[in-house]
Amino acid sequence: MAKPWLLLLALLSAPVLAAPQVTFTTSLGPFTVELNPQQAPITVNNFLRYVKDGSYVGSQFHRVIPGFMAQGGGFDADLKRLNTYRPIKNEAGNGLTNDKATIAMARTQSPNSATRQFFINLADNDFLNYSRNSAGYAVFGHVTSGFDVVESMAKQPTHSVGFMKNVPTTPIVIKKVTYTP
């Protein structure tokens, strides 16, 4: 029979697994997000699929609203829509909230429609959280470094392009994406 104190010692000395991280190098500089696969496994796996296939490189932050969020990943530098994989199940009820510096999946009005677009919250956006009355937007990580780069996106001039509003006048392009498991 195992002694309880040995089990506790084994648990305390077990290595802590680091959360996966993704660093985006943009035309304004780099920022890093730490992902939360424990609370958002479907969303993290989906996001990493685009990271690993390299298709975020060359995409841009196409919607930036000061005091709200910076959205990217869905359009190239010429605002051409990028190909997507199938939409995923909305994990907004995972307990993570749309707080400042968190990363969440963008979607249409249909809750289970997220594909490749994501956004970084520039403020606490409680109205985007899951609730009894709202499907919410699934948070799946947070910015751990370079949040000043994300904040600088909101200082860039924007304009409308066709039906799209709040498009940075000078494209904010993702030049490189580095994944650290």
From TrEMBL:
What EC designation does it have? 5.2.1.8
Alphabetized UniProt keyword annotations: Isomerase, Rotamase, Signal
Which GO MF terms are attached to this record?
Answer: isomerase activity
The catalytic activity, as recorded, is: [protein]-peptidylproline (omega=180) = [protein]-peptidylproline (omega=0)
Q: Which Pfam families match?
A: Pro_isomerase
Q: Which domain of life is it from?
A: Bacteria
Which portions of this protein are annotated as coiled-coil regions? none
InterPro entries registered for this protein in UniProt: Cyclophilin-like_dom_sf, Cyclophilin-type_PPIase, Cyclophilin-type_PPIase_CS, Cyclophilin-type_PPIase_dom, E_coli_cyclophilin_A-like
The PPIase cyclophilin-type domain covers: 26-179
Broad EC category? isomerase
Which segment of the chain is annotated as a signal peptide?
A: 1-18
Q: Which family does it belong to?
A: Belongs to the cyclophilin-type PPIase family.
Function, as annotated = PPIases accelerate the folding of proteins. It catalyzes the cis-trans isomerization of proline imidic peptide bonds in oligopeptides.
Name of the protein this chain belongs to: Peptidyl-prolyl cis-trans isomerase
Q: Which organism is it from?
A: Vibrio zhugei
